[in-house]
Amino acid sequence: MMLIHFPSALLPVDLVFSILSGYLHLPVLAEAAYYCLWAGVVGGWAAMVAGFFDFVRFIKPGTSVVNKVIFHACIQIVVVICFTLILTYEYKHVSSIYPVSVLLLTGKAVTTIILFAGNYIGGEIVLKHIAREFQEKNG
């Protein structure tokens, strides 16, 4: 589970550092945001692989949770792709990551909000379905 939540923490931190870098006029925060974005994107791709194996391991075909898991996966795939595109842009323009443009901040903010929605659904899946099944099996 740590692998799943780790990128979820780094991507919003990228947004926070990006905003603060402009507000406080500290280019070092834009650089920190860039590295958080790198780690979050790499971790996000790894989390998708781990999530697939969790799906295969924990979710029984034909159960009511399958559609929710697929919806969660689709949201998170879109989020990781969007953050990958943002990272690609920043990588190609690394010398000018400060000040962060309003368009880039808007993209990061919207994608972060979608990330939170996907995380909420993922949390529901774990707590309401996987944890309950684990409890039922182990008393």
What features would you describe in this structure?
The protein is mostly helical. The chain has one domain. Helix content is 85%, strand content 0%. It has four helices and no strands. Helix 1 runs antiparallel to helix 4 and helix 2 runs antiparallel to helix 3. The longest helix has 37 residues. The protein starts with a helix and ends with a helix.
| Parts with pLDDT < 50 across at least 5 consecutive residues | none
Give the strand content: under 5%
Helix content: over 70%
Q: What order do the SSEs take from the amino end to the carboxyl end, as H and E?
A: HHHH
Give the terminus-to-terminus CA distance: 22 Å
Structural class: mainly alpha
Give the biggest sheet. Answer: none
* Overall form: elongated
Radius of gyration: 17 Å
Q: Helix tally?
A: 4
Mean pLDDT rating = 91
Strand runs, count = 0
Question: How many structurally independent domains?
Answer: 1
SSE arrangement:
Layout: H1 2-23, H2 27-58, H3 66-92, H4 102-138
List keywords for this structure.
139 residues; mainly alpha; 4 helices; 0% strand; elongated
In short:
By secondary structure, the protein is an all-alpha fold. The chain has helices at 2-23, 27-58, 66-92, 102-138. The chain has one domain.
